[in-house]
Amino acid sequence: MNTQTETENGMERRQEVRVHIDQKPYHSPNPTTGTALYVLASVQPGLELYREVKGDREDAPIENGPEHVRLVQDEHFHSGPAKEFKIVVNGKKKVVTMKRLTFDELVDLAFNPRPTGPNLMFTITYDSGPKANPEGELLPGHTVKIKDGMEFIVTPTDKS
């Protein structure tokens, strides 16, 4: 099934295409979102959706979020465990499955138990990151995209 609709001004075309998720056929609007694909196939919590690619490359993960996903008729996807990323935090190897880490998540990875105090603050610097953020400082309330081998230094400081 490959249907098309037009908007009132005739400028935008929206197709419905057949895709296969975990070897089952589904019909989806095109473009769609990652969230819509996860809902369409009832992807179980803790699993991630992957777009199958040709050759010996890794299948591409689909974010469970509002980003647009362009589909191709009869394209194949599969669900599976989230990819693991090996990172280094304060010289210690850590394994995480999130593609982005928050400031607080990195502090928790660096310290167990987490230091506390009325004047305690943390600074986080990183390097060996992906092209989007190869190096820099992470500020409280922000997130950073990660990749294998990324290194973080989390430092507690007393702001007195």
Structural notes for this entry:
This protein is mainly beta. Helices cover 9% and strands 46% of the residues. It has 2 helices and 15 strands. Strands 1, 2, 3, 5, 6 and 8 form a 6-stranded mixed β-sheet that branches. A hairpin with an 8-residue loop joins strand 5 and strand 6. The termini are far apart. The N terminus is likely disordered.
Rg from alpha-carbon coordinates: 21 Å
Distance between the termini: 67 Å
Number of discrete helical segments: 2
What is the global morphology? Answer: elongated
Mean pLDDT: 89
| SSE class | mainly beta
Oligomer: single chain
Q: Helical amount among residues, as a percent range? A: under 10%
Stretches with pLDDT under 50, minimum 5 residues: 1-11
User: In what range is the share of β-strand residues?
Assistant: over 45%
Largest sheet: 6 strands, mixed
- What is the tally of beta strands? 15
Q: Could you spell the SSE succession in H and E letters? A: EEEEHEEEEEEEHEEEE
Compile the SSE list and pairings.
Blueprint: E1 3-6, E2 13-21, E3 24-30, E4 32-33, H1 34-40, E5 47-51, E6 60-62, E7 68-69, E8 75-81, E9 85-89, E10 92-96, E11 100-102, H2 103-110, E12 120-127, E13 136-138, E14 143-145, E15 151-158
Parallel strand pairs: 2-8, 9-15
Antiparallel strand pairs: 1-2, 2-3, 4-7, 5-6, 5-8, 9-10, 11-14, 12-13, 12-15
